[in-house]
Amino acid sequence: MTPPASQPLRVGCVKYLNAQPLIHGWMGPVLFDHPARLCEKLAAGELDVALVSSFEFLRNSEYAIVDDVAVAADGAVYSVFLAHRGALGAIEEIAVDPASQTSVNLLRCLLAEHGWMPRFIKTEGAATRDVTESHARLMIGDQAIRFRQQHQITHQFWDLAEEWNRLTGLPFVFALWLVRRGTPDADALANALRNLRDRNLLALDPIIADENEFSAAFCTYYLRDCLRFHFAEREKAGLLKFQSLCEKHGILPQRPHTLRLL
User: Fold this and answer.
1) CATH number of 80-168
2) Cβ-proximal residues to 251 (8 Å cutoff; 6+ apart), any chain
3) Are 162 and 74 contacting, i.e. CB atoms less than 8 angstroms apart?
4) For 137, which DSSP code?
5) What is the dihedral of CA 239, 55, 119, 128, to 10 degrees?
6) Does this chain's domain 11-73+171-248 share its CATH topology with 80-168?
7) Annotation: CATH topology of 11-73+171-248
8) What are the residue ranges spanned by the domains of the chain?
9) What would the pLDDT profile of 24-74 be if each residue is shown by its tens digit?
């Protein structure tokens, strides 16, 4: 599938397994990076469109969202969790993965809803701290999958999407395609990204076969059972609920809840 514009679009995408059904087969150039870095480049005008953390839209609603496409979960997601030992209420300090604003702020909301207020350590070095009864780690993406598979016997895992679903009854939206204002042929771009998603979901086997690190059985489970790739009405309600809780807990200022869709 080729990009819809005559000049190559500057496309960015998170470099996680969960993004592959949304980018596999795109024939134009793609910059793969961590969510926070992509958000910076999109804001600086170095990218035209990027699959980035959903919180970036809530923080800066000047972007348009490619309608009906997302990385979301309606229950446990497996790859976004708080690794801990012992009672959650006894945690004093959490080392947070700085790569995703969305997961960090989701965790803040969930903890606040329970009345828990541990300290957050945001540096890269803090992420290597051992997990103890009083120290936990927030992890996301492929490194979270690796950690969970290696430590599934010795650690406990508080799946943030599962807890969100238990709390709200809604899916959680982790990532969206965001498009900068003034991007040429934005409507055609949105259609191309939706069509690409549809084609990939009908043929996941080549994506799974291309994965070198995780087993085919795990990839099948993860991509088919843990993740959702649509941004439909329940996902939109989940995103706006996330905005409401971020406002409630002082993470975001109050502002209208509107979605600009392509």
Assistant:
1) 3.40.190.10
2) 105, 108, 109
3) no
4) E
5) 120
6) yes
7) D-Maltodextrin-Binding Protein; domain 2 (3.40.190)
8) 11-73+171-248, 80-168
9) 999 899 999 988 899 999 999 999 999 999 999 999 888 999 999 999 999
| C-beta atoms surrounding 37 within 10 Å | 17
- Tens digits of per-residue pLDDT, 149-171? 999 889 999 999 999 999 999 99
Question: What DSSP assignment string belongs to 142-197?
Answer: HHHHHHHHHSTTT-EEEEHHHHHHHHHSS-EEEEEEEE-TT-TTHHHHHHHHHHHH
Beta bridge partners of 81: 139, 159
Distance between start and end Cα atoms, the chain: 19
Which structure tokens are listed for 28?
């134009």
Between CA 40 and CA 57 the distance in angstroms is 12
